[in-house]
DNA sequence: GATACCATGTAAAGCGTTACATGATTGG
DNA sequence: CCAATCATGTAACGCTTTACATGGTATC
């Protein structure tokens, strides 16, 4: 049950609508946690039902309304309970490594395409995360500024430091995956130039 | 739909029972792909129904039987189709980074415990993967030997090289996560020694 | 005969993806 | 008035986890 905790985490910064949460999960946050709006709106309703968030219904224009969710005392307690609790390490599922292990069943072209996409994906991710790290460092992130504004000065250092720790982790991951993709592409070049046959080739 | 392809991948090495597949997914393979038996047995039945695997029912002792699954022509085609197809990159969900980003809501003790578990988990994973890489290099893996035995000599280099590529990726990932966990533990030590308060502290 | 291992299932509940669906507001 | 954006939902389907469940075989 972590979508709930990801939503509570966002709401500890400031109250917002489901739509704003959807936007965050579509943006740079998507590389840490993401969910479609079809999952977010019902979960917010359940969190409201379970008394973890309060809702303010605010008019929007003449006829429309929007629902602004804010975390309440019970929600903050639940979030803190979750964050203090040890999250166990479960078996992973890495479809890209699974695929790479069986590239002899593919073709050089298809294998290269997959590895190139891997490289592109993590190159984009790296750029985004480096930018985010810099933005956090210079307090250019509005959500972070909101968060800092409502917490005492002496907590600021920890708040910023922990966010930076996460982003440095993502940066390290992106660099590692880029390196791995390059290694894969180099291996494919080497094997093809040696004329090593693949089973998937026509 | 990747459990199906993970199972097909295993069955390209040799025919086996659901129980043997369960064992593999519980062992060192678990760090690349894993599934509980409650997912594996029904999926094998569906694959049988869909004509991707053949089944041989073999007696076991006096009264018991076992079902040995082998991949057939259609199954191999489906596996090759999947491996040639580009797997898109979807938004990730990393609960450990999400948690780390909000450690100011935790306590030093709980945050340290989580990071220590992270370190332990990936240290174990690193040991396992280094061993597997070495075993593959020296053809000490029975599944790999079965696989090589049924393929022509000229494909052997690629088969071994792609498996090693995957394991090197897992090793790089484990090292990266170990490094990150150490960074996190160091940060926690530094903040605590400076007396920076956390919101979750009693 | 007890224990560990072999072997295979079902079922409920939860989580995630994809598609379908609707309507208001804002700015050009 | 048209397009982009704001805003919020439902539904079907598939995958994953956890729990419940059963019985044979091999070895000491």
| Shape assignment of chain A | elongated
Report the strand count of chain A. Answer: 3
Largest interface, Cβ cutoff 8 Å: A-B, 72 and 72 residues
Structural class by helix and strand composition of chain A = mainly alpha
The first-to-last residue Cα distance of chain A is 46 Å
Low-pLDDT segments, ≥5 res of chain A:
none
- Write out the strand line-up for the largest beta sheet of chain A, numbering strands in chain order: 1-3-2
Quick structural summary:
Chains A, B: Residues 7-80 form the Transcription regulator PadR N-terminal domain. Two copies of one chain form a homodimer. The first copy, chain A, has 202 residues and is mainly alpha-helical.
Fold and architecture overview:
Two copies of one chain form a homodimer. Chain A is mainly α. Chain A folds into two domains: 3-84, Winged helix-like DNA-binding domain superfamily/Winged helix DNA-binding domain (Arc Repressor Mutant, subunit A, Orthogonal Bundle); 95-193. The first copy, chain A, is 63% helix and 9% strand. The first copy, chain A, contains eight helices and three strands, in the order αβααββααααα. Chain A has helices at residues 3-11, 18-26, 37-49, 73-84, 95-100, 108-137, 142-149, 153-193; strands at 16-17, 53-60, 64-71. The first copy, chain A, has a three-stranded antiparallel beta sheet with strand order 1-3-2. In chain A, a hairpin with a 3-residue loop joins strand 2 (53-60) and strand 3. In chain A, helix 2 crosses helix 3 (37-49) and helix 6 (108-137) packs antiparallel against helix 8. The longest helix of chain A is centred in the C-terminal third of the chain and has 41 residues, at 153-193. Chain A starts with a helix and ends in a 9-residue tail after the last helix. At the A-B interface, helix 1, helix 4, helix 5, helix 6 and helix 8 of A face helix 1, helix 4, helix 5, helix 6 and helix 8 of B. Chain B binds a DNA duplex (28 and 28 nucleotides) through residues 1-3, 17-19, 22, 35-39, 41-42, 45, 60-67, 90, 93. Chains A, B: InterPro entries: Tscrpt_reg_PadR_N, WH-like_DNA-bd_sf, WH_DNA-bd_sf. Chains A, B: This is PadR family transcriptional regulator. Chains A, B: Residues 7-80 form the Transcription regulator PadR N-terminal domain. Chains A, B: Pfam families: PadR. Chains A, B: It comes from Nonomuraea composti.
């Amino acid at each position: 049950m972590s979508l709930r905790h990801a939503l509570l985490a966002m709401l500890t910064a400031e109250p917002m609508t489901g739509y704003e949460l959807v936007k965050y999960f579509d943006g740079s946050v998507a590389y840490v946690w993401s969910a479609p709006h079809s999952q977010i709106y019902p979960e917010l309703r359940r969190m409201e039902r379970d008394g973890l968030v309060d809702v303010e219904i605010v008019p929007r224009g003449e006829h429309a309304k929007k629902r602004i969710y804010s975390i309440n005392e019970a929600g903050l307690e639940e979030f803190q309970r979750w964050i203090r609790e040890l999250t166990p390490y479960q078996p992973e599922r890495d479809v890209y490594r699974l695929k790479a292990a069986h590239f002899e069943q593919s073709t050089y072209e298809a294998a290269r395409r997959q590895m190139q996409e891997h490289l592109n994906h993590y190159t984009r991710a790296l750029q985004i995360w480096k930018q985010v790290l810099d933005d956090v460092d210079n307090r250019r992130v509005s959500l972070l500024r909101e968060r800092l504004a409502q917490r005492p000065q002496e907590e600021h250092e920890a708040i910023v430091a922990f966010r930076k720790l996460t982003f440095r982790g993502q940066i390290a991951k992106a660099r590692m995956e880029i390196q791995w993709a390059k290694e894969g592409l180099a291996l494919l070049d080497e094997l093809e130039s040696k004329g090593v046959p693949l089973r998937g080739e026509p």
